[in-house]
Amino acid sequence: MTQYIIAILAIIVAILLIKKFVGCMIRTIITFVLIAILIALYYAYCNVG
């Protein structure tokens, strides 16, 4: 039960932070996440053979 309450509080805090830092900050984070995914896919496919 306590874990659910903590998870809900974390989600609420995340939503508030997203609303506060909307715009350039979110674009930067999304860009870094996409770059990380592309790098991971690159290494996954290049190290197979």
Characterize the structure shown.
The chain is mainly α and 49 residues long. The mean pLDDT is 81. It is flat and about 45 Å long. It is 86% helix and 0% strand. It has helices spanning 2-20, 24-46.
Provide key terms for this protein:
mainly alpha, flat
Radius of gyration: 17 Å
Number of strands: 0
Shape: flat
Counting H and I runs of at least 4 residues, what is the number of helices? Answer: 2
Order of helices and strands: HH
Main β-sheet, in a few words?
none
| Uncertain spans | none
Portion in helices = over 70%
Distance from N terminus to C terminus (CA atoms, Å) equals 47 Å
User: What percent strand?
Assistant: under 5%
Averaging pLDDT over every residue, what do you get? 81
Structural class: mainly alpha
List the helices and strands and how they pair.
Blueprint: H1 2-20, H2 24-46
Compact summary:
The chain is an all-alpha fold and 49 residues long.
